[in-house]
Amino acid sequence: MQIRPDQLKAHLQRGMRPLYAVHGDEPLLAQEAADAVRAAARAAGCSEREIFNVAGAHFDWSGVLGAAQEMSLFADAKVIEIRIPSGKPGKEGSEALQRYCERLPEGLVTLVMLPQLDNTQIKSAWFSALDAAGASVRIEGIGRAALPAWIAQRLSQQDQRVREGDDGRRALAFFADRVEGNLLAAHQEIQKLALLYPPGEIGADDVEAAVLNVARYDVRQLCEAVLAGQVARALRMLEGLRAEGESAVGVHWQLADDLRAVKRVREALAAGRPMPVALGEARVWGARQRAIERAVPLVSDRAVVRLVAAASLCDGIAKGLRRPDWPIDPWAALRRLVLLTMRFTAAGPRPRGGTRPPLALTA
Questions:
Q1: Which end of the chain is more exposed for a tag (fewer CB within 10 A), N or C?
Q2: Which domain holds residue 151?
């Protein structure tokens, strides 16, 4: 049984299942889901908690199996937590988890904590056994587009709200820009507003005066923003990655790889392959697939060839080489490559019979 995080509280109020598997890489939401299960278990009479951290391939699963078997001899209800940070219990662990699920006694609540799982892991025998024995809660990150609504919902939980109209939208957009990619810090900033201001309406000026810039970015998010044509967000991310000490070489590699993927997909489409096949052959999946699929019709064959060539020049600069008419600083070169790419991705579809400005290497 699969449960969304926003459904968990209501589900627990109706009654608990014997096992919950929480999986995902968003620490705040995973912690909140686990805390909700623990609190419900305590309310149901589980006064003890036993924790097993599965580390390494040689973990002794007999302790986990033994803890469940002890419940048939003693009446005290308890929570058993099984934490698998790698998400890979191994062959022995897979078999142990399946046996464990077959022998769940009365009075025991099991909480299994896992990182984000791929489709192969979700379809595995051990995870299917966990899901069948109880319920699984899939934790997904909050993307930038959904972040303002998430912030507004969290503010409402502490009886606060932004003003209606443009002022409120500006406040939420500002808040989201400051905390993107860092929900733990976002949660702290929301709590800080409860300390600074009374319940009720909060203006954009109040938010801007109180909320710190605690956003964290990763290279994948930057590339998605570039391919989505989000100019201000992409440039903000680029500066953020530089300030965080990210390697210019690593940032360039991912962006160049996306440009090469756009080129491969266009070539496959020109050869008569449908879009899903072209994306699969280019080894493009997930959120990256959506970003590249959007960019493909916006970048012409000629433009993508020149962008790939520009990425090659930028690669040399990132590795210490100098190129005529390009900045010496690797981050300045990356900024130029980002702007060159967004000359196409930031635009809508090309009008019939229209042309875009010629690609320049002096963005």
A1: N
A2: 147-210
DSSP single-letter state for residue 347: S
What the block records as the tokens of 330 is: 């690797």
Q: Are 90 and 120 in contact (CB under 8 A)?
A: no
Residue 102 has pLDDT above 90, yes or no: no
Question: Which amino acid is residue 233, in one-letter code?
Answer: R
Residues 104 and 152 in one domain: no
Contact 254/223 with Cβ under 8 angstroms? yes
Confidence of residue 25 (pLDDT cuts 50, 70, 90): confident
Sign of the dihedral through C-alpha 112, 110, 100, 59: positive
Q: How far is CA 298 from CA 101, 225, 248, 263, 285, in A?
A: 51, 15, 26, 12, 19
**Among the listed residues 195, 172, 176, 174, the one whose alpha carbon sits nearest the alpha carbon of residue 185:** 176
Q: How confident is the model at residue 29 (pLDDT cuts 50, 70, 90)?
A: very high
Cβ–Cβ under 8 Å, residues 349 and 325? no
| Share above pLDDT 70 across residues of the chain, in percent, rounded to a whole number | 93
Radius of gyration of the chain (CA): 25
pTM for this one? 0.67
Q: What is the CATH number of the domain that holds 294?
A: 1.20.272.10
E strand or H helix that includes residue 113? strand 108-114
